[in-house]
Amino acid sequence: MKTVFTVLKKELTCQLRDKRTLKSMLISALAIPLLLFAVFKIESSFINKENNKQLNITFIGAHAEILKNEFTTKAFKIKKNHNLVSALDALHKDSLDAVIETNADYLKNIDSLKTSTINVYHKSESPIVFQKISQQIETLKATLLSKRLTQLNIDQKVLHPIAIKGIDLTSDQEKFGQLIGGFLPYIFIIICFLGCLYPSIDLITGEKEKGTVETLLSSPASRFHILLGKILCISLMGLTLATLSVTGIFIGIKFINEIPVEITEMLHQILSLKFLAMLFAMLVPLSLFFAGLLTALIVKAKTFKEAQSIATPVNMLVIFPAMMALLPGVELNWNTVFIPILNLALATKEIIAGTIQISHYFAILLSLIILALATLYYSYKQYNKESMVL
Amino acid sequence: MIHIQNVTKQYTLTKKQQKELQANTNSINAVNEVSIYCKPGRVFSLLGPNGAGKTTLLRMVATILKPTSGSILVNDKNTVKQAQGVQKSIGFLTGSTNLYDRLTPAETVSYFGQLHGMPKEQLKKRTHLLFDQLDIHKFSSKRISQLSTGMKQRVSIARSMIHDPDVVIFDEPTSGLDIVSANSIITLIKECKEAGKTIIFSSHIMSEVDLLCDDLAIINHGRIIYNDTMDSFRTQSTGQSLTEAFITTVNAN
Known about the structure:
The structure holds two protein chains of two kinds.
Chain A: H1 2-16, H2 19-52, E1 55-60, H3 64-68, E2 76-79, H4 84-92, E3 98-102, H5 106-111, E4 118-122, H6 127-151, H7 172-180, H8 183-210, H9 213-217, H10 223-255, H11 261-270, H12 273-298, H13 304-311, H14 314-324, H15 342-353, H16 358-383, H17 386-389
Parallel strand pairs in A: 1-2, 1-3
Antiparallel strand pairs in A: 3-4
Chain B: E1 2-12, H1 15-21, E2 27-38, E3 43-47, H2 54-61, E4 69-74, E5 77-78, H3 83-89, E6 90-94, H4 105-115, H5 120-133, H6 149-161, E7 167-171, H7 179-194, E8 198-203, H8 206-212, E9 215-220, E10 223-229, H9 230-236, H10 242-252
Parallel strand pairs in B: 3-8, 3-9, 6-7, 7-8
Antiparallel strand pairs in B: 1-2, 1-4, 4-5, 9-10
Helix pairs in contact in B: 4-5, 4-6, 6-7
C-alpha cells in the first residue's frame, strides 16, 4: 500500500500544480452559485419590470367608452385609435401592447342576460399583458354577474353546489426535494464525471505521450499499485469537484436574496450531517466508478486527442440516466435501484425529500461499490496488457 | 550479467498495420531468436538501423515487455517469473528525457527512490551524492519544465541511478543531446563500467560505440547478424571506417 500512496501523492502534486486543473476546479465551485444568482436575478428583474410596466392599450368598437372606465388604473395607458386594422398594425409594431374590441351588440347581450364577447388582441411573447387585462375584465365580469343574480333574485351560493378544497399533505421538505432534488444530482454527477475526465487523460495517456511510462513500469512497483494510485487520484479529483459544486449550490442558495425565505429555511433543515454523510457515501464509489471506467477506456489511446475522442461520448451515457431522474413519474423502486447513475440521482432526490427507504439506499450503495470494483478490475486487466500501455 | 536466450517477440498486426507493412501474415517478429550475453564490468553495445528491434529487446530486458518465447536472465533472475527482483537491479535510461514537468528534480528522484522501496535515510544520502556528482543541487528545487535539455538529462541519470543498480540499460541515451550533455552520459557509462556494473546500450553513433564498447551485437530485422567483441569487429573492418563496416554488415544480411 505504501507504493499506492507514493503514486497517489505524486499524482496529486502534479494535478494541483496544473493550471488547467485548478482553473476547472475553481470554475466548478463558482460556476453553479454564480449561474444560480444570475438566473434568479434576471428572472426577478424581468418579472418586476413586466409587473411595473404601464401597458399601452386601445379600445375598438361601439361600446369602447364603457369598457374604458374599467381600465383607469396606472397600469394602463389608453391610446386613441380609429379602427381595428390600424390598431393591429400598431400592435405588430409594438407601439401597442393590446387591442380590446367589443362587438356591436355588446350592451344588448349584457342587458338581455346573454354572453358578450370581448376580443383581446395581444402577443403571447409577453404573457403578463393578457393576464393583466383578463384580471381587469374578470373584475367587470364579477360585478355584472352579481348584478344579474340580484336582478333574478338568486343567491350567489346557487352557482357553487360543490366547493373543492385540496389538502396537500406533502411536507415542505418533500416539495423542496421535488424542486431541487432532480437538479442537484444532475449537476454533481456531471461535474464528478468531468472532474475525473481530464485527470484520467493526463495521468494515463499523458504518461504515454510524454514517454514517462517506460521508466515507471521498469520500477519494482507493481502495475496494480501504480494503477490504483492513479485511479485514487482521478477519483479524488472528481470527488473534490463534485463536493465543491454541491457546496457552491448551497452557498449560492443561501446568499441569493431573490430566493424565498421558506426555501432558505428549508435548506438549513436539510443540510444535516446525516444528509451530507449519505450523499458523500454515494459520491465516493461513484467517483471511483468513473475513474475506473475512464481509465479502462482510454488506456489504449496513444495521444491526448485520441483519449478525448474515446472519453467524450461516454459523457452522453452519464447525462442520459441523470436526466431521466428529472422526468415525472420516474421513481426509486426495486427496478430503478440497480440502474447506475439513475439510482444515485433518484436517491439524492429522496434523501432531500426525507423519503428514502434505507433498504433502497444500501442497495444503491452496494451496487455502486460493486460497479466501482468491477471497473477497477477491468481497468487493471487493460493496463496489464503491454500493447495497451506503450 | 544479462543472459538473453533464444528470445522472440511477436506482435499481432491489425488489418490496417498489415496493409501499411504489406505483410502477408497477421503477425510480425520484432525480435527473432536472439541470444546474447552481457558480462559485468563490460559495456555491451547493441547496434542496428531504425526499426531493427533494439528498443523492443531492451524493453524486454527492462521487464516492460514479455518475450513471446525464450528467456532473459538478469543477475540469474528471470525477467518474467522474477520481474520484481530484476526491476530492483536495473536502471533504465532512454534518449528522450522523459520526466514529469510539474515535479522538481528532488521530487522526481525521491519518487523513483520510493518506488524502489529505498529507506528514507538511504534515499537522502544517495540523492545528495548523485546531486553532487551531477551538479544538480543548484536547480534541484526548480520545476522540470523550467530546465534546459542538458539539466533534464542529468536529472534523468540521477533518477535511473538512484537505487544504485547492478545492471544499466541505455536506449540511445545521447540521441538529440548537445555535445556537453552527451559527454555526461559517456562519462556515466565509463563510471558504471569501472564500478563493475553490467551495461547494455543501444546506439547508432559509431564514435560512441568505438569509445565505450567491449562487446558488440548488430541487429537487423529482429535477428542478430553479428555478435563478438569490439576488438574482433575492429580487426574485421580493416581498411574501412567502423561506420562503413557496420553498413557493410547490415547490407550483407
